[in-house]
Amino acid sequence: MQSFTEENYLKTIYHLAEKSSSVQTNAIAEQLQTKPASVTDMIKKLAEKGLVDYIKYQGVSLTTNGRLAAIDIVRKHRLWEVFLVDKLNFKWDEVHDVAEELEHIKSVDLIERLDEFLGFPKSDPHGDPIPDKNGRFAKTQFIKLIDLKINDLGTITGVSQHSSAFLKHLEKLGLTLGKEIEVKDITDFDGSVELLIANKPVNISREVAKHILISNNDKI
Amino acid sequence: MQSFTEENYLKTIYHLAEKSSSVQTNAIAEQLQTKPASVTDMIKKLAEKGLVDYIKYQGVSLTTNGRLAAIDIVRKHRLWEVFLVDKLNFKWDEVHDVAEELEHIKSVDLIERLDEFLGFPKSDPHGDPIPDKNGRFAKTQFIKLIDLKINDLGTITGVSQHSSAFLKHLEKLGLTLGKEIEVKDITDFDGSVELLIANKPVNISREVAKHILISNNDKI
DNA sequence: TTTTATTTTTAGGTAAATCTAAAAATTTTT
DNA sequence: AAAAATTTTTAGATTTACCTAAAAATAAAA
Ligand SMILES: [Mn+2]
Ligand SMILES: [Mn+2]
Ligand SMILES: [Mn+2]
Ligand SMILES: [Mn+2]
């Protein structure tokens, strides 16, 4: 059984490892708003518990046990987010912080029943996949909106940025999950993207387009 | 804002104060499964924060702020218990431990929405009243089943013992909330009580009868 | 390939919440 | 009222998760 803090470290290492296989001390420290020295301490502890592989100065990676533990936290986090949005009518930009707390509640039974109550959802309010109780989930092939070409069609199925500011911005533009979009133009001047959503034209910056994930059903 | 541990102390002091106005160090220690020396330390801290009144060797009592904080935890605990039973189909003897964790989730918005989602329940699965967001709740006048006389009628509206063993026992005997009972006899030999529930005779020990709370609608 | 900059680790310390053992205060019993 | 028992507090340690400052290792630049 891991402590609240250990769980947060495992989850952070898991998420950082999705980008680069070996995770660096400073990256963990920044993510967890703590100091590199503290990270080194905790990494040693997790290594002793067999949850991470660690070679001094060489970064850290999760062991099989560590990965399973991390995925379990991710599962809880995402199920709670679904609960907050589907049942308690939170907006998708309001759920992250509360889920950060709820994910640490320790009861296997609770999370199985919650999963059932929610109808065994496959993805959370941000389009992220929800692992099953064995830690398995479909690794979805997403394309970034920024990588689409003019005239490409697609459906918004995820976001790679969960900040409230970003999500509220998307909401205002009508860029929510499930919406179909078409790329009409890519501006030379600033790389901003001209979209068509529900027959309405919308212009988004490169920065926004980078963090919208698309499943491209069809191309013309 | 209180820590997880401070919240547990406040809640414990609140519950103990329902029995005797001044709460003793040893009683708190026993309830929290800790040592009296640790309790003294924490009491000093809570006193400095203005949450308890404390005179050395004279026991401790909650200030107005302390009481409000304690009632807020109790409110959360009981609302989560309702959620677990009504929505996730937990049994009434399975919810306490999980609620002990959930009660510490810090989000005013969450608990307001949960309250609404549950239909603003007035009592929890054990018949205990749920305070509103201002800490107000009806102080219900309960009678212990043990104090009833032969031929008295009543409705089971609460229990003063929340252990799983006790609640499972009641369940097996059909002694659940809302059931109407009639006292048929009180055994001379061991003080056990002969009841009639749904026209069936049930015999319960004194110990059990002590912890069943009755609202006595009528007497014959 | 040195020199410089960056990253990471160690050394030593702090605060919160515990503990044990011993001292002090209070309560109960003789 | 004195002695004995109980309760409570203090003193001094321990553990967890942090920190700062300095040293060591690695990576980048000259
Ligand atoms: Mn989230
Ligand atoms: Mn999410
Ligand atoms: Mn309870
Ligand atoms: Mn209850």
From TrEMBL, chains A, B:
It comes from the Bacteria. GO terms for cellular component: cytoplasm. PROSITE patterns: HTH_DTXR. This is Transcriptional regulator MntR. Residues 1-63 form the HTH dtxR-type domain. Homodimer. GO terms for molecular function: DNA binding; DNA-binding transcription factor activity; protein dimerization activity; transition metal ion binding. In the presence of manganese, represses expression of mntH and mntS. Up-regulates expression of mntP. Keywords: Activator, Cytoplasm, DNA-binding, Iron, Manganese, Repressor, Transcription, Transcription regulation. Pfam families: Fe_dep_repr_C, Fe_dep_repress, FeoA. InterPro entries: DtxR_MntR_Metal-Reg, Fe-transptr_FeoA-like, Fe_dep_repressor, Fe_dep_repressor_sf, FeoA_core_dom, HTH_DTXR, Iron_dep_repressor, Transcriptional_repressor_C. It is found in: Cytoplasm. Belongs to the DtxR/MntR family.
